[in-house]
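Q: Can I borrow your eye for a moment on a structure tokenisation matter? Would you mind producing a protein record, from residues through to fold? Write it directly below this note and I will take it from there.
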Amino acid sequence: LGLCFALKAQNNLNIIPQPVEIQLQNGTFSLKAGQVIGFNKQEAQSTTAMLVQKLNIPTGFNLKATQGNGAIQLIINEKRNEKLGKEGYTIDVSSKGVLVSANEAAGLFY
């Protein structure tokens, strides 16, 4: 899961798998030491813990995973979004934070 993207004039996005739809907005999000990565349901806990580990190793930022709010949120939708299916997700990045939402934990993983 990529959190920082370098957007070029061609709008190349370095993210795998490539999104079906992209809506570019102004602004950036900067990952900082000590930030919290939150999740809303127990099914998202292992993916959140893995993300924390993958980010902490190269950055040394000592990020934490917690059930609840965080600068980065991994959310399993309360109401199913049929467009997403089982493995789809949405990601919204702003200067306030990052919100990744999916119907199931598999969508958060990808």
In short: Residues 45-59 form the longest helix (15 residues). The helical segments are 45-59, 105-109.
